[in-house]
Structures are given as C-alpha cells and as structure tokens.
Amino acid sequence: MKAFFGTFVNKVDAKGRVSVPAPFRAVIQGRGLTSVAIHPSLFESCLEGAGFDRFENLEAQIADSFGPSTRDDVAELIMAELRELPLDGEGRIVLPDEFIAKANLKDQATFIGQGRRFQMWEPAALATVMKAKLQRVTAALKPKDMS
C-alpha cells in the first residue's frame, strides 16, 4: 500500500477549502476512495487524516456491547470527531470551522506525510515542532564525549 510522505504547503481560502496535495490524493484514489477522513489530533495542535478505510479498521476494534465492556477510549475519542470530507473536482476539501480553529489554521496549511496517515498544521507551528524534533534526534544521536 502506498504511504503518505512529503511536506506540502497549500492555501486555505475564506470558505475553508484547501487542496489535498496531489501525491496524497493519489494514495487516496489508489484505494478507490473519493474522500479523506480528518479529525483533530488528540495530542498535537494539528489535524490528522487518512483514507476512511483506516478508520473503518479502527471502528472494527471497538466492542459493540450494551453493557460494560473493555473500552478503547482513544478510538472512541477519534470516532467522535472524525469527519469524512469529499474531494471536489479540483482535489479540494472543505474543513469544518471547528477544525480550522483547533489547528489554528489561517490562510495556509502544511500537509506532512506520516506513512499511513498525514497531518495538517499551521506552518509556523509545524516549523517549531520540527525544530524541536530535530534537536531531540541530534542530542540522542550525538556521540558521547570519550574523554
């Protein structure tokens, strides 16, 4: 299965429309899908998305019971806010206002591939996050002083 990879910055218009990057659309369309599924991240100030097929697998893991059962709180939280957003003829989706607010998007969104999923960030916020990740990786891989 093709993965989501790469980083792309696209314009968000006044109506909340944003073009899904062509390589990401190719992944979605390669699965026979015509929409993306998006939800606010539980852990970061961004939106997370994939093909709806990824979330169908998540839904299958939630127990269907009328009584107390083993719960998957993460799955339930994601499913509660998940939206299926159809791609229009130009490859755009319309983001709900509450998603735009949660990710603090203004006139641009940075799409970043994450393998089986992708994220949408406010560009400056992603730059800050990526800088911190690079510093952590550099510190972890830096050779220890041998003296």
Verbal overview:
The chain is α+β, with helices and mostly antiparallel strands and 147 residues long. It has a single domain, classed as Chemotaxis protein chec. Helices cover 35% and strands 24% of the residues. The chain has helices spanning 22-30, 52-60, 73-81, 97-102, 123-141, and strands spanning 7-11, 17-19, 35-40, 47-50, 83-86, 92-94, 108-113, 118-121. The strands form 2 sheets. The chain has a 6-stranded antiparallel β-sheet with strand order 1-7-8-4-3-5. It starts with 6 loop residues before the first strand and ends in a 6-residue tail after the last helix. The relative contact order is 0.22.
Spell the H/E element sequence.
Answer: EEHEEHHEEHEEH
Q: CATH class, please?
A: Alpha Beta
Per DSSP, the total helix count is: 5
CATH superfamily: Transcriptional regulator MraZ domain
CATH hierarchy: architecture: 3-Layer(aba) Sandwich
The termini sit apart by 48 Å
Under CATH, the topology is which? Chemotaxis protein chec
Q: Order of strands across the widest beta sheet?
A: 1-7-8-4-3-5
- What overall geometry do the principal axes of the alpha carbons give? globular
Tell me the Rg in angstroms: 18 Å
Percentage of helical residues?
Answer: 25-40%
Biggest β-sheet strands, sense, barrel: 6 strands, antiparallel
Q: How many E strands?
A: 8
Strand proportion: 15-25%
Low-confidence stretches at least 5 residues in length (pLDDT < 50)?
A: none
Helix and strand content put the structural class at: alpha+beta
Provide the residue-averaged pLDDT.
Answer: 90
Q: How many structural domains does the protein architecture include?
A: 1
